């Protein structure tokens, strides 16, 4: 048996362990026979109710008894009796997608759920033949469907992890503040005094402390130096001539202070990012310098989520051909409203994305636990078995829809921000801002909309499990989504109180 998430890896074994316990209780108490007895009585009463023209009522009842008994025996043998033994050694965490796309993932024992290994690591369970077959086929179909999607780094997840990387070292945080005051601020002030004519790319570059312009242009970071001693650099008489030697360190140049390969601020800041993030960034097709600069800009600058503000991607249906002042004003108001809504919505979407696989794993465990009770209460009805089969397949196949939503999200983000339209200015820029915001809203909701569509499609096929599963998944992620939006709500309230 294979699983697609860490939580599913452990909860699958737990679910079948509880399932075995419930079936043991049902068989040891004789409860399993009551529904069958009630069904046989119903068949007997139905046979007695037949008219005289039906012929031999006893023979008819016997035939019906045999049909009910044989069908019940088949259902019990294949869907209730545990036969195939499973444990944490036979349950495998699926890494086929990671191998296909060339990245590595940690094993469950190396994840945050590793403590569960000691809790249930010694447990064994047994799975009925039918459900083992359904699980294997469902996972196989899901993996095959996911493998048809081109490999694409999850840009939104990368952005989420980078934006939530914090400078936890107070010494490094203070050093960054010192660098701004002693290096960046003087260099920026000198640049303004000289009234240099900068190109568009250079103007963007000098907007952060690791500016290549300040690093490589004579008269800036090469001549500016730390104004307070730095313990990581010993006092150098040739370099620090004329500066007081307090015995607590030297005075490196700003260029050395930032880019030194061993003790520079740049390398120490980059080490804060998880290795898995760098692994994904390497697959973006950008140079190392480009994605390192993007990460550094996020780490050292207080940045809010922003979408493109330059260039036009495509004209949305909300646009107007006639660019009158009224249309521009309404467009601007709508964009501002969406931006404020996005402050609360985007963290909620991130929380929802994290919660969905967890909800899926818990629902699968709940379904596994309920199987013996459902089968017994249905009096071993084959229709019930088919319905539960489709429910299990539908839950497992949700993984593909989330992979598809993630791929679409990453592809659109890549197409949106890699285009030249986002590095040039045009008069329709305000429309571009709204369209970009709308894309973020739409793709965030796709993680719920696509599974909802899938459940509805099952209803078209006559499988009445869609509504229940959809409501369960929606309710399971509602609290996580609401919690994710709390941060945005706090920002909005803070902004409104500031204006007052």
Automatic annotation (TrEMBL):
Stretches assigned to the TraG N-terminal Proteobacteria domain: 8-478
InterPro entries: TraG_N_Proteobacteria
Keyword Manganese appears in the UniProt entry: no
UniProtKB keywords: Membrane, Transmembrane, Transmembrane helix
Protein's UniProt keywords contain Cell cycle: no
Ranges annotated as spanning the membrane: 22-47, 68-86, 358-377, 384-402, 437-461
Protein name: Conjugal transfer protein TraG
Lineage: Bacteria, Pseudomonadati, Pseudomonadota, Gammaproteobacteria, Enterobacterales
């Amino acid at each position: 048996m294979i699983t697609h998430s860490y939580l599913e890896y452990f909860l699958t074994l737990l679910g079948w362990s509880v399932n075995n316990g419930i079936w043991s209780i049902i068989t040891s108490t004789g409860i399993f026979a009551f529904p069958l007895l009630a069904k046989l009585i119903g068949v007997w009463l139905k046979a007695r109710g037949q008219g005289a023209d039906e012929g031999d009522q006893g023979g008819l009842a016997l035939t019906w008894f045999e049909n009910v008994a044989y069908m019940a025996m088949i259902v019990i043998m294949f869907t209730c009796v545990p036969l195939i033994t499973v444990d944490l050694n036979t349950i495998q965490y699926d890494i086929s997608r990671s191998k296909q796309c060339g990245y590595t993932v940690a094993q469950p024992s190396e994840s945050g759920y590793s403590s569960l290994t000691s809790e249930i690591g010694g447990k064994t369970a047994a799975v009925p033949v039918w459900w083992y077959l359904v699980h294997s086929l469902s996972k196989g179909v899901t993996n095959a469907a996911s493998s048809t999607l081109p490999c694409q780094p999850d840009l939104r997840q990368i952005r989420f992890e980078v934006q939530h990387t914090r400078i936890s070292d107070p010494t490094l945080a203070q050093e960054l503040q010192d660098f701004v005051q002693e290096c960046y601020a003087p260099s920026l002030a000198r640049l303004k005094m000289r009234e240099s004519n900068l190109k568009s790319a250079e103007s963007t570059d000098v907007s952060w402390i690791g500016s290549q312009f300040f690093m490589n242009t004579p008269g800036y970071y090469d001549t500016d130096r730390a104004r307070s001693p730095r313990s990581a650099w010993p006092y150098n008489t040739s370099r620090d001539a004329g500066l007081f030697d307090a015995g607590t360190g030297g005075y490196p140049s700003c260029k050395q202070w930032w880019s030194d390969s061993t003790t520079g601020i740049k390398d120490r800041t980059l080490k804060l990012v998880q290795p898995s993030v760098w692994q994904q960034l390497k697959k973006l097709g950008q140079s190392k310098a480009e994605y390192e600069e993007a990460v550094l800009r996020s780490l050292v600058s207080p940045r809010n989520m922003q979408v493109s503000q330059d260039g036009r991607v495509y004209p949305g249906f909300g646009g107007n051909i006639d660019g009158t002042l009224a249309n521009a004003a309404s467009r601007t108001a709508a964009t501002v409203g969406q931006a404020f809504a996005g402050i609360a919505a985007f963290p909620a979407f991130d929380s929802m994305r994290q919660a969905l696989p967890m909800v899926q794993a818990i629902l699968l465990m709940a379904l596994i636990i309920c199987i013996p009770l459902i089968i017994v209460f249905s009096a071993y009805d084959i229709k019930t078995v088919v319905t539960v089969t489709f429910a299990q397949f539908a839950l497992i196949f949700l993984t593909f829809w989330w992979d598809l939503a993630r791929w679409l999200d990453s592809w659109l983000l890549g197409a949106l921000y890699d285009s030249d339209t986002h590095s040039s200015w045009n008069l329709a820029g305000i429309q571009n801002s709204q369209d970009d915001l709308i894309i973020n809203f739409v793709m965030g909701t796709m993680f719920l909309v696509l599974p909802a569509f899938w459940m509805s499609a099952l209803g078209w096929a006559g499988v009445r499990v869609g509504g229940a599963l959809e409501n369960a998944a929606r309710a399971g992620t509602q609290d996580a989504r609401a919690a994710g939006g709390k941060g945005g709500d706090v920002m909005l309230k803070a902004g409104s109180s500031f204006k007052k």
